[in-house]
Amino acid sequence: MAETHLENVHNAIVGSTVTTEGGDVLVNGHKVTNYFYSSQYQDLKTQADELQEHFDKTLDKTKKYPDDEDFKADLLKLSGKRNEIRKKLKELKQEVIRLAETFTNIPINSERLKLARQHFEAGNFSAARAILDADAEQMGNELDALLHREEHLQQQQAQVQALRLDKANEFLILARLTALNFDVPDRFDKTIEYFEQSLKATHTLENTFEYAYFLHTHNQFNTAQPWYEESLAIHRRLAGANPDTYLPDVAMTLNNLGNLYRDRHDVAAAQAAYDEAFHIYRRLADANPDTYLPKLATTLNNVGNLYRDRHDLAAAQAAYDEALHIRRRLADANPDTYLPDVAMTLNNLGNLYRDRHDVAAAQAAYDEALHIYRRLADANPDTYLPDLAMTLNNLGNLYRDRHDVAAAQAAYDEALHIRRRLADANPDTYLPDVAMTLNNLGNLYRDRHASPPPRPPMTRPSTFTAAWPTPTQTPTCPISP
User: Fold this and answer.
1) What does the pLDDT look like over 58-77, one tens digit per residue?
2) Interacting residues of 394 by C-beta distance below 8 A, sequence separation 6+
3) Which residues are paired to 27 by β-bridges?
4) Which of 1, 327, 443, 457 has the CB geometry, 3.0–4.6 Å to 21, for a possible disulfide?
5) Could you please report the per-residue DSSP string of 258-293?
6) Which helix or strand (DSSP H or E) is residue 3 part of?
């Protein structure tokens, strides 16, 4: 039986634990659905199997005819298509898990939602979406009528508010169903439209946070900020009356707001958000370490990134060191879950030591992170090859600082090889990384044919050498409910 902590779903968020076995999705021990039964899964699985079979046959041909460039090109294309299908399978699973939690957390009062849930529980996600999508215009008309009725019939406000909540939940579920349906034309725009319809009905704890999170994960920082801030206000109000239940949600939203403010280069706002999240998680972890130590370490890692942005290297190291100490302890007990977090903080520490010109410490941190990422990438290349390339690129920068040209070129070459493969399959995401490593290689080649003036063993590189991390190179960690 596999356990999925939502904080570990690719830059995810934290909250309840979901278990999956044989495709079954269980929330708090109760089965909600089985994504293996869905047509989306079956179609993607069939494509994946066919691509794998074609890939294996082509691989055999490349081994038999190693000099045939056509076979090599075909193999590269098949690898990209296979990785894209695997990514969709992973995203489908994650979306189903999140939607299962949403179905569990919201009241199911309308007949549409009841029917949609029945289809969802049966694994027929397309039918679940069709129930709501077929009536989307009617749902919108009902919502507009309710809004008009509210203006003129104040005495019925309580009833109207209850009905608006149903409409909000219907559109919320429709938004989530649309997000996981890859066959819907303009899937992103439709998801936004249905989120906005849900919020037009009424602002709830669920739809404000879910909309903010969706926008943030799609790099819509300016649009996401007010929804995170509204979600935080709701969580604060609820925590005032019931701190045991809602204070963790306050800290969660503050952590994500800190990430968003940092993405927008609003250092003061990010610092304030992280500091408050940190103090809340510190108190919660003292009382319940098993639940909240991972979240404390996540916020410490993010705080370390911010201090490094501000060039407060002593404070950054203290935050990274504590995060690494916690994550090592967690990884000792549960390596499958927490070793990636150990590698992440080691990479960030390597960057910090490089800033401080501590070559030996930077080398040790990068080497350990590289060793972990190689093991992880061997078992799960789709998830961890980008992290492996990131650390190789950073290690190349360190070798270049030391004027170890051969080692720097070897690290850059391997990073470039990985990033080219990733960009073939997903150019929008990985072409900037290809350009970064090519730029660093260009600087290295220039160094090999020039006589630079004497300088200390560790100096910052030229302006255009991607020497210290971009957001890709120094990852932050969101937390989800």
Assistant:
1) 899 888 888 888 888 988 99
2) 347, 350, 351, 354, 366, 469, 473
3) 18, 30
4) 1
5) HHHHHHTT-HHHHHHHHHHHHHHHHHHHHH-HHHHH
6) strand 2-5
